């Protein structure tokens, strides 16, 4: 009897967790996978965003954003608004991006009544966060990217080659208010 009760509890938990409440105005979504290659190898941890290029009345006038993150095989399984499996029908430009960050070490704050506090505060407000773009910018910009896909009711898979590996420096300044301004 305990085994049957446990079985039903597990079954109800699985069924209850697997159903996802979809927005009423969400268009029909179709499975979509994008494989990203760089230097002949799968690019892991890259973000992939599909930018709609044709107006679709079946999108309900909303901006549904299909996106994904590449796995160890370079494959991004596309989810709309990062939540709903698949992408709406339409023609899209494919933007791929991957960044890496490094921060310089900032010494711990001295006590506020210390004569060194003002110097530390000034230094901390101009502390640099070094960010590097690991994909050529032509592939990251929806207006410039040469990559596109048309999501149809059929199989939606595309392989995208983003060329050679790069490490382009982007400079971001930090301050104590967690506000950043990006210069490239």
Describe this structure in words.
With 184 residues, this protein is of the alpha+beta class. The chain has one domain. It is 16% helix and 36% strand. The chain contains three helices and 16 strands. It has helices spanning 2-18, 117-125, 137-140, and strands at residues 29-30, 33-38, 41-42, 47-52, 66-69, 75-77, 79-80, 84-85, 87-88, 90-97, 99-103, 128-133, 148-151, 157-161, 168-173, 181-183. The chain is elongated. The chain starts with a helix and ends with a strand.
User: Which spans of ≥5 residues are poorly predicted at pLDDT below 50?
Assistant: 1-18, 175-184
By oligomeric state, this entry counts as single chain
Please report the distance between the alpha carbons of the first and last residues: 66 Å
Radius of gyration: 23 Å
Count of domains? 1
* Outline: elongated
Taken in chain order, the helices and strands follow as HEEEEEEEEEEEHEHEEEE
Total E-strand runs? 16
Alpha plus pi helix count: 3
Largest sheet: 6 strands, antiparallel
By secondary-structure content and strand pairing, the structural class works out as: alpha+beta
Beta-strand fraction estimate? 35-45%
Average pLDDT works out at 81
Instruction: Record the strand order, biggest sheet.
Output: 8-7-5-4-10-13
């Amino acid at each position: 009897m305990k085994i049957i009760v446990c079985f039903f509890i597990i079954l109800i938990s699985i069924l209850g967790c697997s159903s996802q409440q979809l927005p009423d105005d969400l268009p029909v979504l179709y499975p979509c996978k994008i494989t990203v290659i760089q230097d002949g190898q799968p690019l892991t941890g890259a973000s992939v965003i599909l930018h709609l290029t044709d107006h679709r009345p079946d999108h309900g006038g909303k901006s549904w954003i299909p996106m994904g993150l590449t796995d160890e095989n370079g494959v991004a399984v596309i989810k709309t608004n990062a939540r709903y499996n698949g992408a709406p029908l339409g023609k899209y430009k494919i933007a791929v991006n991957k960044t890496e960050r490094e921060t310089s070490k900032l010494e711990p704050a001295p006590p506020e009544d210390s004569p060194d506090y003002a110097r530390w505060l000034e230094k901390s407000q101009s502390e640099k966060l070094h960010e590097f773009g690991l994909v050529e910018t032509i592939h990251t910009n929806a207006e410039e990217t040469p990559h596109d896909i048309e999501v149809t009711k059929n199989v939606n898979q595309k392989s995208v080659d983003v060329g050679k590996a790069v490490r382009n420096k982007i400079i971001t300044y930090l301050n104590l208010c967690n506000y950043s301004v990006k210069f490239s």
